[in-house]
Amino acid sequence: MRSRTLLTIAGAAAVFTLYLAIMPHAASAQTQALSGNHPQTDTLTMSSRADASLPLNIHISFAPRNPAMLAKLLNDLQDPASPQYHQWLSPAAFNSKFGRTAEEISDVRQWLSTEGMNIVESSPRGLTSTATVAQAESTFATTMIATSDGSIYANANDPQIPARFAGVIGSIEGLSNTGHSLALNVRPPRANVSDTQPHRQLSTSRNPTNAIAQSRPQPRAYEASLIAELPEYDSGGLGLAFGPADLWTFYDENSLLNAGTNGGDGDCVAVVEDTDYLSSAVTLFDTNFALPAASVTRVQADGASPGINGDEIEALLDIEWAHAVAPGAAIDVYMGTSLVDGLQLAVTNNTCGAISVSYGFCGETSSFYSATLDPIFAQAAAQGQSVFISSGDDGAAGIVLNAAKTECIVATTPNVSEMSADPNVTAVGGTEFTPDFDGSNNDLGSVAESVWNDSQGPGVAVRAGFSRSQPGRYRTRQPTPSVTFPILPSGRVRILRVSTGATTIVVLLR
User: Fold this and answer.
1) How far apart are CA 218 and CA 499, in angstroms?
2) Deepest of 165, 317, 347, 443, by most Cβ within 10 A of its Cβ?
3) In Å, what is the CA distance from 365 to each residue of 99, 204, 304, 353, 405?
């Protein structure tokens, strides 16, 4: 025990020494710390100095201008008694009222350029630059620490910015690679439990060349485990499937569809993904369930396809069931290596009235949620876009970063899903029920539903016939506002992906 204590003290002393090496710059009375802008680190696993020459892609998210005015507007837009009720802003109008001014952007650009950083792009919402670890340490008066092999790195203290940029700069991303995203269709591993099943996770770092390698399965690798998990699956047909027609019957959607309310009013649904997908899989889903051909458009958030990876099943689930619930609505798939980039572009384009995100984050800084994501959600709400977030399928525990800082795991204490708890989004949870089927395995109609015990809750984050004429936000007095999606008796969404040659079907099983 004594040697362990000495090791801890030595590690802490080493990091403190690194911190002091650049503290004189940070101590300037003309700088201010960005509170909550460094991840949780420990001196036992991250006791080394990050490689000074390591390249970083640094993104600065600007804080909205006129925040009090923005808060009032968001309330007025939902108040039927206000002249502003449902008077949605265009992206240009939002930037004009709440984006940073050209002078402010120029000042931040000049500061970073003077520090030796290379500016890649800038807008009223943020700025991206490239730099080395050494330049970042000097510019932001922060200590960059790393694991012994240098694969995981982070800033040990909150970055410092010139005091004149207080209220202008909201958060700084790219100083660490400890953040990860997780598709919420399958549960992550649990702490202290041996689990050999690959899990689909990506580093949320905006430094793709420095991203931590993940144990992500190949696009087809997960099928065997799903089929093994579902012994009742009839490989000769889909007789046990709870299909789109059953969903329509259960929730009495047929009356809406027959009346022409099917999402085909010119609006669309945006789904945010970190993977590409097989178009033939969507076609096969439509054919098997007698759906009209889906109108799906790929939107490359980072300029190129991220390729197909193990999260393809999440993308197919999102696309196919968005189409099933609202068969007349077009679907825009915003895909990229960064989920944040896809989300931001869906809001910037302002094309779709509904945006669905079925992923969660762990290992991020508090400012990532409050100063990077929240302004995006606020802009969406001001534009009349409704953002639906799957809030997780691990009950009150939620997901957290593991001790090795390499992936998201199930927490051992209550943790709210911070993204889905944002006041400008709708969290999607789950209910549980046992459907009634006739002799042909067709649903007979609604039955009693109950709260799903594991739900902070996963779900398909779309609504049929949703349009901007309806409120852009939903609030309740619950800790996390939410709507629900059905979970079948297995206790969770049962997802099966069946491959036939080069195509795939995703269905929900009873």
Assistant:
1) 14
2) 347
3) 23, 12, 28, 29, 13
